[in-house]
Amino acid sequence: MRYLTAGESHGPQLTAIIEGVPSNLPISVEAINEQLARRQKGHGRGRRMQIEKDQVKILSGVRHGYTTGAPITLVVENRDWTHWQGIMSAEPVEGAEEKRRVSRPRPGHADLNGAIKYHQRDMRNILERSSARETTIRVAVGAVARQLLAAFGIRVGGQVLQIHDVAAKREHVSLDELIERSEESPVRCLDKEAERRMMEAIDKAKEDGDSLGGVVEVIVDGVPTGLGTHVQWDRKLDGRLAQAILSIQAFKGVEIGIGFEAAGLKGSQVHDEIIWNEETGYSRKTNRAGGLEGGMTTGMPVVVRGVMKPIPTLYKPLMSVDIDSREAFSASIERSDSCAVPAASVVAEAVVAWEIANAMCEKFPSDSLDDMVANVREYRAYTEKF
C-alpha cells in the first residue's frame, strides 16, 4: 500500500489518496472520526482545537461501507479556512499578498531552510505545509490501516511515558487496560501522580509562553511472525517504523524495545530466550527486542517509542533574523499548543499502524480481504507447527 497527503494548515482541506487497500474491507467513517477526535484532545492543546471539529469525508474507493479495491480518497475540511480565504487563495487576490506574510523564521521550524530551498520570500508558503496540522489526515489514513489490522485480530495502543522532566512509572498491564486507562487520562498517562505533575508542568509552560516535549510509546499486539525482511536494508521493518516515527513533525528520536538502554547492558541481559509449546509454537520469555529481530517481527508485541521535542512556536519567542532587513528580531508567532505530546501519541499510533498494515499486505498480497484472511489463517497454522 501507499498514500500521499496534500493540503495546508489554513487551506480549505487536507486530502489523502490511499492505494492498495484490498477490496471488501469494511470501513467505518465513525471509527475514523473517533481517531480524529482522539488527536484533538489532550491537556496543553491550543485554540485551534476549539475551532476545528475534524470529520472525514470519503470521496472514492468505498461503496456502501466496503472498499472496492480502487484508490481511497479521504478529505478533512479546515473550518478555519473561512478566515483565511483571501490570504490562502489559489487565485491572486489584490492586497492579500502582504497579509500575514512571514519574514521572521522561528528557530526549530522548517521556515528558513524551506524558504531557502524553495526560493520563497514569504515563509508562510513553507510553514503552512510543514505545520503539524498535516498529521490530521495521517491519523485518518492510520484509522483505515487500523480497520485492516482489526480483520486479523491485530490491535494498536499507545501511552505517554514522559512530558518534560516528569517520567511515569512503568506499569506492565494488558493492552486492553493500557488503551482504556490512557484514554481516560488528559495526558494519556497511566501513572496518576505523573499525570498530575505533567499537567502542572504544561500549565506552567503555557503561563511562561514556553512549550514542552516528551516521550510516547506505541504497542501493537497480535502481529504474526515474519513481517518485514532481513534481505535488504530498506525493507527491514524496524527501519521503516523508525522512519515513520521520525516523519512526525517535531519528533527527534526513536527506539524499539529497550532501545538505548541496551547500550549499558550485557548480551545476556538484552536478548530474549526462545521457548516453544504445542499450543502457540515458538515464543520469547521476554520482549526486550520490542517484537523485532533482524528487521522482522518475532510474533511478540511490537513496541516503539518516540521522542518529541518542544513545539518551536513560542508565545515568548526566541530571537531570529528578519530575511528582509537582516536585523535581529523576535521570531514570528503562530497559534500553537504549549504541549502536543498527548496528541502526538495518537499520531504515532497511526503511523505505526500504517507500517504494520503495509507489511501485512506485502507478506500476504491479495486483491480482496477474503483471500488475504485465508492466506493469513494458513500462515498462522504453519508457524504454529514449524
Fill in the keyword field for this structure.
alpha+beta, Chorismate synthase, AroC fold, 5-stranded antiparallel β-sheet, 33% helix, 20% strand, globular
Q: Any chance you could write out the topology, listing elements then pairs?
A:
Layout: E1 2-6, E2 13-19, H1 29-40, H2 48-51, E3 56-60, E4 62-63, E5 66-67, E6 72-77, H3 111-118, H4 124-130, H5 135-150, E7 155-163, E8 166-167, H6 175-184, H7 192-207, E9 214-221, H8 237-246, E10 251-256, H9 267-270, E11 274-277, E12 281-284, E13 292-293, E14 296-297, E15 302-308, E16 319-321, E17 328-330, H10 341-363, H11 369-385
Antiparallel strand pairs: 1-2, 2-6, 3-6, 4-5, 7-8, 7-9, 9-15, 10-15, 11-12, 13-14, 16-17
Helix pairs in contact: 1-5, 1-10, 3-4, 5-10, 8-10
Structural category is: alpha+beta
CATH topology: Chorismate synthase, AroC fold
Tell me the β content: 15-25%
Q: State the CATH superfamily name.
A: Chorismate synthase AroC
Number of structurally distinct domains: 1
Shape: globular
Give the helices and strands as they follow along the chain. Answer: EEHHEEEEHHHEEHHEHEHEEEEEEEHH
Provide the gyration radius in Å.
22 Å
How many strand elements?
Answer: 17
Helix fraction?
25-40%
Mean pLDDT: 95
DSSP summary: helix tally: 11
Looking at the overall shape, the CATH architecture is 4-Layer Sandwich
The main pleated sheet reads as:
5 strands, antiparallel
Strand order of the largest sheet: 8-7-9-15-10
CATH class: Alpha Beta
Distance between the termini: 29 Å
